Amino acid sequence: MAVPANPAIEEEHEGPTHHPTAPSHEFFDLSTTVDPSYIISLIRKLLPSDSASAHGVVSDVPNKGGAPCASICNDQQFESSKNKSENMDVDVSRESSRTGGEYKDNGGGFEHSGASIGEDAWEENGCVLWDLAASKTHAELMVENLILEVLLANLVDCKSMRVNEISIGIIGNLACHEVLMKHIVSTKGLIEMIVDKLFLDDPQCLCETSRLLTLGLQSGESIAWAEALRSEHVLCQILWIAENTLNLQLLEKIAGLILAILESQQKVVEDLLPPMMKLGLTSILINLLTFEISKLTSDRMPERYSILDLILRAIEGLSVIDDHSQEICSNKELFHLVCDLVKFTDKVEVGNCCVTAAVLIANILSDVADRASEISQDWSLLGGLLDIFPFASDDLEARNAVWTVLARILVRIHGTEMNSSSLCHFVSVLVRRIDLIEDELLNKQSVDYSPGSTADTRNTSLMRIISIVNQWTAVREEAESNGNAEFLVSETDVKKLLDICHKFSK
């Protein structure tokens, strides 16, 4: 894969102090008290200095593709939009009061009339709009007053990374409101301009661009966004960023973008996934997983856990897609990686990751059944699978996956062929987790015993446990009668384990 000349995105540094993120859903419909005229004045102050006439008109601003941008934001249009919005239930608010309703000259050359302002003042105004765009009411008012056209005009040949970041960040918050997504898509040249920002060398701009593209692929307008991404040049850049960035925030955002592609509607997957696979998506994801697991076992950096989760979910998503699952399921390195993750002893902070790993193991074993023989004597893995149940208590599919893996392993364990030491290890793993097993069996018991169901795989596992524990009991009794070394497993615990398995088996 070709590597861009400037590797600046590899630099890991802190972002700006004012960097709003995607708003939480619970904040979307909060009642607002911001005067519409204040928002309109902020939009006017974002007009590019080289595009505004004495009357504040921006017209026929070309984008990089040469297509003209519609005439935007003259005084008459702003006044019309203001009158149109006067009936909205809004008043002067805390946001307005923090600037006193007026902007003072901060040395950046700001003029209240809408003429040219300096970058510092533009940044201040843009950040206020970035925050306000989290509110649906404010966001709709902004779009009515042509903020998308204003931002597009700013993005055209913009040299300031901060202006790029804020402009895309505002659009990203607007995109959080599904009702406004059609406006974003229908603004001529805007999606293409946003995609073009993937080739910037600024991590914060790339973060906001990746976030916005992810929102687009998760929306009802995903096909329009996918069409803008389908160029091999663009897909190559996405994968290059994922493979090369050292910035954790950017890595998380780009991994989220890849996951959004895999989880999007069928047409998007059909259009984008084949070329991404040809560009090495599988090997890139596995390399990223290898690195994150190595970090997990050494540095224990909580800020990396979400990245690990996204990578695992992307790989798990690939493992169930026709025509591409075999490349995932046949990879031995991947299989051992996810098994190692399941065996990770401290699961409290990475429980979701371990759940995904167990689901991925189940998917692999369904395609390559012989792999189960490789892990049938791995008692650490057996214990790790049982340890996952509390983290999957509300996820029936994940619980089913764990039982499926257990069943595939246990049917390959033959108690009569195991020596006393192996039998003792097996029973020890189980009795140490009696409470976990009992809690799982009590959790939302299923009456569906159809092949492949949770109850079916659970029943198979329980019957195999009963058989192997009975074999161990026979070996133990024989050893005791011969005066051999004692077994360090409580007879009471063994009896309790058998009682539980008999109680819940069919």
From TrEMBL:
Region of interest (Disordered), ranges: 1-28, 80-110
Bias type Basic and acidic residues, positions: 81-105
GO cellular component terms given for this protein: nucleus
Compartment(s) of residence: Nucleus
Keywords recorded for this protein, A-Z: Nucleus
SUPFAM superfamilies documented for this protein: ARM repeat (SSF48371)
Family membership: Belongs to the SAAL1 family.
PANTHER family, A to Z: PROTEIN SAAL1, SERUM AMYLOID A
Record protein name field: ARM repeat superfamily protein
Native source organism of the sequence: Vicia faba (Broad bean)
Lineage of the species this protein comes from: Eukaryota, Viridiplantae, Streptophyta, Embryophyta, Tracheophyta
